[in-house]
């Protein structure tokens, strides 16, 4: 998980959700009579460090199971290694389709995920925008980021199919901090909504600068917005699609909130409210451990079959 790099809060939440699930299983005696020993590596939401982390845990630590990464741009290169070495990888949160399937559409049999995928998330975002009365949209995206690119394409296809019109598309890079040139084009295009499917750190900058320019069209985004570090004032009036809500009354959610709040406190000693990354880290771990338990074996070839056939009630 990314414990440093561009989005460390995502890595911390995912890790903490996963470790909570491990602790709960260990308190019940582990899985298959064995205690679970977690190994945590920082993969930085970046391809090269992610590849290094995957090779280290597979070749040195001899792990058979990987939970991670968070970012699709890191999960995809890890999946190439894990699938080739017959190591199960389950990403809690990577929504790009190419995490679990190859470019030719064939399945990577050892690779799984706990979350929905970008075509679904983009479709829901587009349908939501249309349902809110939006007839026009402007798309801002980082084409070098697999996650952002996939969502932007899915949103555009669904929005146009639903009768909407894209009045502008502009690209930026992940290191940009000044969005004024793009936002000038947004102001000229006067869209009903602006689609920005990136991580919270980009949203904080772009949305704040949009408000300073007097742009009142709401931003619509995706699960990358879900962070305690999202600038709520900058994003005010916007919307994003997500995997779970802490206000969901289902017992799975209520019980998870209680356990997470008891395990993790903020600086003032108050119970932390888990975000979707924590929920998906927890679900991914429970999925994997339930599959190992059902397979009655820690042989990845048997566990992958159990995972493919699993019936599971998650928090997300």
Overall number of strands? 8
What profile does the largest beta sheet have? 5 strands, parallel
Total helical elements: 11
Shape: globular
Strand content: 5-15%
Query: What low-confidence regions span 5 or more consecutive residues with pLDDT below 50?
Result: none
| Radius of gyration (Å) | 20 Å
Mean pLDDT: 96
Q: Gap between N and C termini, in Å?
A: 19 Å
Order of helices and strands: HHEHEEHEHEHEHEHEHHH
Which structural class should the secondary elements be placed in? alpha/beta
State the helical fraction: 40-55%
Widest sheet: strand ordering? 5-4-6-7-8
Give the topology, please.
Elements: H1 8-27, H2 47-60, E1 65-67, H3 72-84, E2 88-91, E3 111-113, H4 118-131, E4 136-141, H5 146-161, E5 165-171, H6 180-189, E6 193-195, H7 200-212, E7 219-221, H8 232-235, E8 239-240, H9 251-263, H10 276-295, H11 300-308
Parallel strand pairs: 1-2, 2-3, 4-5, 4-6, 6-7, 7-8
Helix pairs in contact: 1-10, 2-3, 4-5, 10-11
